[in-house]
Amino acid sequence: xxxxxxxxxxxxxxxxxxxxxxxxxxxxxxxxxxxxxxxxxxxxxxxxxxxxxxxxxxxxxxxxxxxxxxxxxxxxxxxxxxxxxxxxxxxxxxxxxxxxxxxxxxxxxxxxxxxxxxxxxxxxxxxxxxxxxxxxxxxxxxxxxxxxxxxxxxxxxxxxxxxxxxxxxxxxxxxxxxxxxxxxxxxxxxxxxxxxxxxxxxxxxxxxxxxxxxxxxxxxxxxxxxxxxxxxxxxxxxxxxxxxxxxxxxxxxxxxxxxxxxxxxxxxxxxxxxxxxxxxxx
Length: 282
Prior knowledge:
The protein is an alpha/beta fold.
């Protein structure tokens, strides 16, 4: 089974679980993605305004909408929007003159998100079916790209970042939460930790992430650690995987993190045919 199929099946199963039983998505031990990764990411003021199933289906490792300024009238795109929590929060912040798109490849998640949209009465929201490696929106069409612990799941992260750059308007902002690896970790340990952190995860090393953003054309790149994963949090999972936790602890501590990653599309990138107004050229 390829990674994309595995991701689609896992998140489809989670959406069905939330829809059919009202179970919190990431507190099913079989999913291997429970606290502390997903806990306490949203405050009560945020979750209190949303449909319960949008909150239950939250699978992220951060809260990108809390760490980026969204302005009235802007267009926001959420890559891998799941049950729609970040799309609905973004829609409130950009107001009725703005627009929030959610992009997901999983039919069950899209159905759940659209039901959450209906329940929330969000008229400035649209959920699109597609893959984050091939975004179904025109060039230079959104102001902000957000994502919550989804880019790490892609087998072609460079392509995802290129697509994010393409759809952003000049001066647009890239603002995502994602899992990163801070430094070098032996491959066997790396894979076991990432399976625990992200269920099906291929997190990049921080400087590799930076390099891919630079290659895509982004500027003003920064990383802000929002949560570090302690070896004790993963002890049960790693022990079940046959790994001697106490032996690897010094190699793992503070290496696996959730980070908020910011970047911008330079204004000078705008002057392609049909891209910018005459007073921006030159």
